[in-house]
Amino acid sequence: MSKLSSAERKARDNERFSQRVNERREKGEDVVAYALTNKKAVKFLTKSEKKAMNERKAALQEEAKLKEQEELRRIEESFTVGDNQE
């Protein structure tokens, strides 16, 4: 078996990801979740799916930010409670 050039490899990989996205879409699976976990699948989403992906990504980032703020608040409180007891 001969080695593929980078262009051939890229074309092969694109075809595989396109096929996987289409298979998931046909099965009724969540292609947006698949694209969020696998960045190469993003370019095979429809416009509406890309919009939904961006909304989900923003929501996930906001959730992570809120969790981080809550953790920082808890850490601060643990220090202030410790200072008040001394």
Give an overview of the whole structure.
The protein is mostly helical and 86 residues long. It has two domains: 1-42; 43-85. Helices cover 79% and strands 0% of the residues. It has three helices and no strands. It has helices at residues 6-27, 31-37, 47-85. The protein is elongated and about 65 Å long. The relative contact order is 0.08. The mean pLDDT is 89.
Distance between the termini: 74 Å
The helix/strand series, from N terminus to C terminus, equals HHH
> In total, how many beta strands?
0
Helix content: over 70%
* Secondary-structure content class: mainly alpha
Q: What is the assembly state of the chains in this entry?
A: single chain
> Treating each run of at least 4 consecutive H or I residues as one helix, how many helices?
3
The biggest beta sheet is recorded as:
none
List unreliable stretches of 5+ residues: none
Rg estimate, integer Å: 22 Å
Measured by DSSP, the beta-strand proportion falls in under 5%
Which of globular, elongated, flat, extended, rod-shaped describes the shape?
elongated
Mean pLDDT: 89
Number of structurally distinct domains: 2
Short description, anyone?
With 86 residues, the protein is an all-alpha fold. It has 2 domains: 1-42; 43-85. The protein has 3 helices and no strands.
Keywords:
86 residues, mainly alpha, 2 domains, 0% strand
List the helices and strands and how they pair.
Layout: H1 6-27, H2 31-37, H3 47-85
